[in-house]
Every structure is written in structure tokens, then in C-alpha cells.
Amino acid sequence: MRVLLVEDDEPVAESLRRGLLRYGFEVDWVTTGGAALSHKDPYDVVLLDLGLPDTDGLDVCKALRARGDVPIIVISARSDETDRVVGLELGADDYVSKPFGVREVIARIRAVMRRAQPRGVSEAAGPDAYGTRLTIDRKAARVRLDGEEVPLAPKEYDLLSFLTEEPGALMSREQIMEAVWDANWFGPTKTLDVHVAALRRKLAGAITIEAVRGVGFRLEITDGASPS
Description:
The protein is an alpha/beta fold.
């Protein structure tokens, strides 16, 4: 799936671009509204920032919608309800406020693509591959190691799904607890250690989950061959 990313903030764009590429998306990145409107290559969905240097992103949204039905997701620091309403009325299919996570953006993309898909046509996207051994089918919530399904408890799956959003990134305990358990979680995080230990045991050789003392955890993909 090809994404047209219209974003002038380089750190934001690079982070989002890397995340999308990791999940198999192709990304064309432009930094101005003019470049977006003159872009010739085909794309399946637009991620559009409103705060562009040459024009208001709302005008770009309106112009893109006038050209066709390609899904448009606004990504903006403008969280005011008026901007949201205007963006949706001008033809945006969804609106994501900054700051956001790559996982949220991908979920929004998949949701708008499902809505845009003709009834009866199955989703083309398959499982996400992490190295040569591990795959995660997020649509079916199934994990396979060397082709064999690995039975995971619901929170084990949620934890793995979260950590594999950005392999190599250091995630604090607070970030993980908020994303996987509850945004209002308070109290000890021993349950996190238990679930990390379970994933290490069940997916040994395919991933490593490093504990960083006093901070959190970092997941790395071990791109090794299957054991004989």
C-alpha cells in the first residue's frame, strides 16, 4: 500500500515514515501543499498535516477531495474541535491529533481502507513479518513462530504487538503499562515482568527483550534461522 505523507516537520515525518516502512507500506514524503497537489505517482491514502509552510492544509484537503475518493487522514497539532469538524466536512476521512503513535496511525489507515473497500473484497494485507521466523497477524490476533501458531494469553499478545511497533526503541514501564493495560494504571508493574518473561520463553530465538534498569524494555528482532 502506498502512502502520500504531507508533513513539513522532519523529525515527525521521518519517525512516521520509518514506522510505516516497517509495516510494509510504501511512503512518498512531500513537505508542502504545492508538492502534494502536483504529485504524479499513484497512492492509496494521504496523511496530511494542516500546518504546511506554503498553504493551509485544509485547502489541500479540499483540493485533493475534489480530485477523487482516495482516503485522507489529517495528522495535526491542531486539536481544536472546529478544525476537526472543518477537516471532516472538507472531505477528510479521519483526524489524528499530535502527538500520536505509529500504531495508532496504522490502525486508522487500515480502518479507512476497510471502509473504502468494496463490499465483499477481502483485505490484501497479510501478516507482519519480523525477521525470518516470527509473524504477527494483527487482523486475526495470531502469532506464528517458524510457521507454527504460538498460543499467547491476551495481554501477552497485546504486549508483543506494542513492543514490535518500534523494534529497537526503548519503552518505559509507564508507556507500556498505559498502552497495554490501562491509561489510568497505578501501582506496581510486576505483572509486566511476568508477561515479558513469558514472551521471552515462548519466542526464544526470534526476539530478545532487554531490560533497561530503572527505565523499561527494548525489543530486538533476532533474525536467525530456524533450529534444526
